[in-house]
């Protein structure tokens, strides 16, 4: 990944450009909170927004983007099909519902939120249909391990272009990153700041102090230097701006290794193999 500025992107397996820094809107409430967050992000230069049907704010995301006056084609919009909507026909129906709420003719990236046994395969086939019709620019999955990806490759026709998983210094899963790199699947981080918990780490504080940056900025920069697309969530203007101010410094190889070494296989969310028991 070539890191330049907030306008930078990665090129997915099918040639689609995906901005490597975006705004996550999980738990952002529709109304002023969401609209102000998206407005602040757009003013800062963000052009990538990640929502999901489960977040119950697709309508607000679509409305805020439209209100901004920024052309739709300049914005990269991601949403996801929820667990109860998986299966072939249910996924097609769920997509239509999301599209209507987003007030858009297409989605840039559509993801399976969690791999519901058996149903996620049929959901994938429905997404392949929508992709072939041009209504989705890229398709992928969330919260998957290699065996899920291999099942999709075996049962489907198109390999996932993106894998969005929990990823932060306490959950690196380097073997999974390497697997995705070998398969040309773009890795994307959710909960890159470990729901705020990572900012208290003393080793990260030392690195941040050296670069005169916040711990959050160090972690986001680490994501990018690892080749991982990242979507830190915030509804606060100052934090949204801070999270984007990561292009005027670089972590050394030694610092990258130190951050990697913080890995404890510690999750804030469910494990992809046992999520049905945990959600």
User: How much strand?
Assistant: 15-25%
Name the CATH superfamily classification of one domain: NADP-dependent oxidoreductase domain
Unreliable segments of 5+ consecutive residues: none
Radius of gyration: 18 Å
Overall mean confidence score, pLDDT? 97
Order of helices and strands: EEEHEHEHEHEHEHEHHEHHH
Helicity range of the residues?
A: 40-55%
The global form is: globular
Largest sheet: 8 strands, parallel
Tally the helices.
11
What do we call the CATH topology of one domain? TIM Barrel
Distance between the termini: 34 Å
Cross-sheet strand order for the largest sheet: 3-4-5-6-7-8-9-10
Task: Please give the CATH class of one domain.
Answer: Alpha Beta
Structural class of the secondary elements?
alpha/beta
Count of individual beta strands: 10
Named at the architecture level, the CATH assignment of one domain is: Alpha-Beta Barrel
Task: Provide structural commentary.
The protein has 279 residues and is an alpha/beta fold. It has a domain at 9-196 and 227-233: NADP-dependent oxidoreductase domain (TIM Barrel, Alpha-Beta Barrel), CATH 3.20.20.100. It contains 11 helices and 10 strands. It has helices at 32-44, 58-68, 88-102, 119-132, 146-155, 174-183, 202-211, 215-225, 237-244, 253-260, 275-278, and strands spanning 9-11, 17-19, 23-24, 48-50, 76-81, 107-112, 136-142, 162-166, 186-190, 229-230. The strands form 2 sheets. It has an 8-stranded parallel β-sheet with strand order 3-4-5-6-7-8-9-10. A two-stranded antiparallel ribbon has the order 1-2. Strand 6, helix 4 (119-132) and strand 7 (136-142) form a beta-alpha-beta unit. Helix 1 (32-44) crosses helix 2 (58-68). The longest helix has 15 residues, at 88-102. The radius of gyration is 18 Å and the shape is globular. Belongs to the aldo/keto reductase family. It comes from Autumnicola tepida.
